[in-house]
Amino acid sequence: MPQYQPHQRFTEADRDKIAGRLRDAFADGRLDQPEFSSRLDQLYSVQTYGELEPLVRDLPPARTYQTPAVVQDSKPTPAPGEFPERKKKDGPKGPAALSGGFTPVVIVNVVIWFVIGVANGGNWPHFWPVWLLIPWTLFALSSLGKRR
């Protein structure tokens, strides 16, 4: 940050920053209404840094943005080329894990076959869910030896 000389003129952005400091001081109770109004009037009549300094000399430094606590506790991003360690997800256990997400489809089809057989008075149709059970069994057997 460059050093400003008291005789240098300031910008409108600088004037806005000082007005913000005065508003903060007023909101915090450091300035009463007459003093706040007086300093604000002076702020809009001065032109150099030297004239600005007395307006805020007795006030605390400007508030700056603070990082939220949630973000402060998070881990920093890894350096390029480094990869964070991923946590392994606990997937389904037992037969459901062996077949992916196909088990409910097979079960629904076997139930439909059963309901049709009961509705026909025990006259069971050909066991057509076998066409779903064959790929389900092959998939389940192929995934038995794999580690995830």
Detailed description of the structure:
It is a single chain. The protein is mainly alpha-helical. 50% of the residues lie in helices and 0% in strands. It is built from seven helices and no strands. Helix 1 packs antiparallel against helix 2. It starts with 11 loop residues before the first helix and ends in a 6-residue tail after the last helix. The relative contact order is 0.09. The model has no long low-confidence stretch (mean pLDDT 79).
Quick recap:
Helices cover 50% and strands 0% of the residues. The protein contains seven helices and no strands.
Which residue ranges are poorly predicted, with pLDDT under 50 across at least 5 consecutive positions? none
Helix content: 40-55%
What is the molecular shape? rod-shaped
> Would you tell me the structural class of the helices and strands?
mainly alpha
Number of helices: 7
- What are the secondary-structure elements, in order, as H or E? HHHHHHH
* Spatial extent as radius of gyration: 37 Å
